What we know:
- The protein is α+β, with helices and mostly antiparallel strands.
- It is 47% helix and 12% strand.
- The protein has helices at 5-12, 17-24, 28-37, 47-52, 82-85, 98-109, 125-139, 169-185, 269-358, 364-380, 396-399, 411-421, 431-435; strands spanning 2-4, 72-74, 162-163, 189-192, 197-201, 204-215, 230-243, 251-258.
- The longest helix has 90 residues, at 269-358.
- It is flat, with a radius of gyration of 54 Å.
Amino acid sequence: MELTRKELYDLVWSEPMTTLCKRFGITDNGLRKHCKSMNIPTPPIGYWAKLQNGKTVDKIQLPDDYTGKKNNVYLQEVERSEDEATKIVVDLAPPVNKQKELEQELLSKKIDCFVVPEVLYAKEALIIDTKEKFRLSKEKSFDNNYLKKSPYKCVIEETLDVFVSEKLIDRALSIFSTVIKALRYREHNIKVNKEGTYALVNGEEFRINITERKRQDRNSSNQYDNKNNVFSGELRFNISYTSYGGWRRETSNIRTYQDTEHTRLEDKIVSIIAFMEIKADEIKKERIEAEQRRIQQEEDDRKRRKLEEIRRAELKELEENRKAELAEFQSLFKMADRLYKANIIRDYILKYEDYLKENNIEDENALKKIAWAKEKADWLDPFISKEDKYLDHYDKDEISKPERSKPETSWGNQIRQEVSGNRYNFWEKPWWMKRR
């Protein structure tokens, strides 16, 4: 679009500069440079705000004393897509914390099952058996002051994973009993076998145990000796699980809830249950995604192997065709070479016959030799391939090759070669016939 000086002046005083910049795809500084180069005044700061509020504003008139060379400006309107025209809405709300939401939901329904009792009331078979097993292990030690007699009898072989001191066994079992009760309230379950204790949450397994942190014995003479560490009185609830994130294989993870300076493990039962439920959903989703990746990877590998097999088959076929082509060409060249050599023999025989006629040499032995040579040419010719009683024993290509010159090894061999070279040969020295 070509605008005159007056048209550009009317334009910048009819719309804000920011609107014009978006309309023509130009920066505010670039539009102001065009106006400045043609001595066009622009609205001052606050002009459009005052105009919008109904206040009186002064419009600067276009100067008539402009003497510059630039009288026109070219501006191109740009088309805005629907996406660009749509306003971008920014959500300033904080991200949702699933852990906190689920904890609030659990606390709003039934709080009693998440409260750890101050005194252990062993009604759960697993709790009873774990306590009995702990007592029996203590009876075998030298200093046993814990439960000399117990009314409970062990019903099952496997017990809960609890690794604490004698002082905290009741507290640890109370926490475990509450966790089991909370899991069953949420329609989950618990499993105990030789490998360990597992919480079954939404079809996923979490290995759980309670341990007591150990610290260095302050009375120890060697501060670096960790073999004689003592129990610190701080309990830990450990949750081990397997994740399937990324392209890697299964990875093991551990989440620990523990006593701190201001909190106790008993106050974190809701957090433990909420964590396992949320993590179970995440693990299930990760497993499905991992399975989809595995299937896709196997499909890609199958396609790749198929392409490799096709490529190997093509290369094998190409190599076989090459060998067949080479063998065919070698056979062609061998037969052509035989024909070429047979024709050389025939040409030589004709020359020999012409030589005998020109010199009026009539020798019966010579005629026999020439007839013999014609038979040998027919024997070598691939189109005739006449049988030969003596030469059929040899390879036609090998015996038709020219002999290699043997190196002179000694003075005696040189003399013998010279003597043998002077012997008469019908085919090598036809001029001897003329002498005779």
